[in-house]
Amino acid sequence: MKTLSNYSRYSYSWLQVHSNKIVVLFGLALVLGGLTESLQSQTFEPDWDQERIVVAADYLLAVIEGAFGALVMVVAGIAAIVAATMGAYRASVAMLVVAVGSFILRSLVELFFGPEFTGVEDL
Questions:
Q1: Which of 56, 64, 104, 120 could form a disulfide with 69 if both were Cys (CB 3.0 to 4.6 A apart)?
Q2: Distance between CA 117 and CA 51 in Å, rounded?
Q3: What is the pTM of this model?
Q4: Are 59 and 115 contacting, i.e. CB atoms less than 8 angstroms apart?
Q5: pLDDT of residue 1
């Protein structure tokens, strides 16, 4: 059976003692190195025209907020009532979330992303 030299034993025991510290420092270096990429991407300006995306999103929100959103809300509300009477309470709660979500979607988008969706007039 081979025996380890004194240097090998010392380095092996040193690694055993300090392995947690090495892993933590390596992970910290990875996180901090990755954060620099994220911080640089905050100032990135895209090359394409963002106005088309804003207008398309505003059109979609206008449709959902209009007659189609009312239809979705009513159908989801009726389906929630039917599901609750049949005992499917999870489905009922999910349909209530859909109904309320279609009612307040524009408010949520303006709350999280700002009131910059103004490209489409009322439908």
A1: 64
A2: 10
A3: 0.47
A4: no
A5: 47
